[in-house]
Amino acid sequence: MHTHRKTLINVLSTKTTSNTMPEFGVTHESANLKRVLVHHPGRELEQANRDQVAHHFSCAVDIPQFQRDHQMLMDALTEAGVEVLDVGTLLADDKQMQSLIQRAPNLVFTRDSSTVTEAGAILFRMGLPSRRAETPIIRAAHEAAGTPIAHQLKEPQTFEGGGFALLEGRVAVAGLCDRTTQGALDDLGDFLLKEQIVDQFIQLNMPKGVVHIDGEFAELPGKRAIAHRASLEENSANFRTRTEAWDGGYIEWLIDDGYDIIEITDKEKDDMAANFLTVHSDLCIHYTGNPRVMKEVRERGIEVIQIPGDEMRRGCGGIHCMTCPVLRI
User: I want to staple 119 with a disulfide (CB 3.0 to 4.6 A). Which of 150, 188, 235, 268 is the partner?
Assistant: First the structure.
């Protein structure tokens, strides 16, 4: 890690927090990250190496290198003043959950099985059948960390957290993607609006072949966004509040709402250029690579810590996918 990044992290880690700071609650993806749920992977990655297709890995991974790179992510978060909650550690004494973990090689992508709101955690039912054992593990981890369960999707509906984002201004965005059912989005939108967790729910109707929206879109601090225009404009989006519903263009809505948009190319999208994790108003974490996009972000006053991603990319997920924010303020 370069010296200027270390200095920035040291400054962030010395920021004081209130003794009355809550244990959970997320209102939007670009607020300051204080607690995050991760899973440091273990021998369960052997399951993915044995059957890459079933577990949606692009190829076999070097497990020790994957673990070392993931540890770098955990260390960077800790050094930036974020409390890192590890699923395996939270459930170390639960033999049933430990047994389930051994059969869940995608558990490292903790974003997908739940999302945390001001009301608590919302648990999802995974679209990829081999991942459905993750939901009870994540439920147990949230409960062990003191995060209440606010809502849970039920069979036959499916949705994964990489297809969801809470934006500044009490807005939720969810993608109708390859692993999503319409019923899941209807249920999710109804819950969020009824409980007044958000005031607006936007459904992005993604092109065929898209698994999660975090490959095409991410909110950054200061009303900025990374966006792959072609994916987000292929189909109209569906907008609704508690009293109205209409269709429109998502990119147009972002511009009208005051977002500064950094557009990415097809190649950059495929290299996970949108898969950012915001840590603070002037700090994000990403994989190595995508130099043009990193330059654009840094020119806007946001430092980027870059973690080696050659092995972790083989699991078809990024830094955003590997982190489930529990508390942002």
Answer: 150
- Are 180 and 159 in contact by the 8 Å Cβ rule? The answer is yes
> Crossing angle, helix 63-79 and helix 3-13, to 10 degrees?
60
Whole-number Å distance between alpha carbons of 280 and 116: 18
What 3-state class would DSSP assign to 261? strand
Q: pLDDT (tens digit, 9 = 90+) per residue, 124-166?
A: 999 999 999 999 999 999 999 999 999 999 999 999 999 999 9
Do residues 307 and 285 touch, judged by C-beta distance below 8 A? yes
Do residues 125 and 154 make contact, with C-beta atoms less than 8 angstroms apart? yes
Q: How far apart are the C-alpha atoms of 14 and 19, rounded to whole Å?
A: 15
The 8 Å CB, 24+ separation contacts for 301-304 are 301/222, 302/220, 302/221, 302/222, 302/224, 303/4, 303/5, 303/8, 304/276
Q: Which residues pair with 116 in a beta bridge?
A: 121
Q: Which of 18-27, 91-100, 282-291 has the lowest mean pLDDT?
A: 18-27
SS3 annotation, 33-72: EEEEEECCCCCCHHHHHHCCCCCCCCCCCCHHHHHHHHHH
Tokens describing residue 12: 């962030």
313 and 106 Cβ atoms separated by less than 8 Å: no
CA distance 274 to 228: 8
Beta bridge partners of 205: 176
Alpha carbons 255 and 284: distance in angstroms, whole number: 22
Model confidence over 278-329: pLDDT tens digits?
999 999 999 999 999 999 999 999 999 999 999 999 999 999 999 999 999 9
Please say if the pLDDT value at position 213 is more than 70.
Answer: yes
CATH number for the domain whose boundaries are 27-328: 3.75.10.10
Residues 24, 121: Cα–Cα separation, whole Å: 9
Sketch the domain layout of the chain as residue ranges. 27-328
What pTM does this model have? 0.93
SS3 110: coil
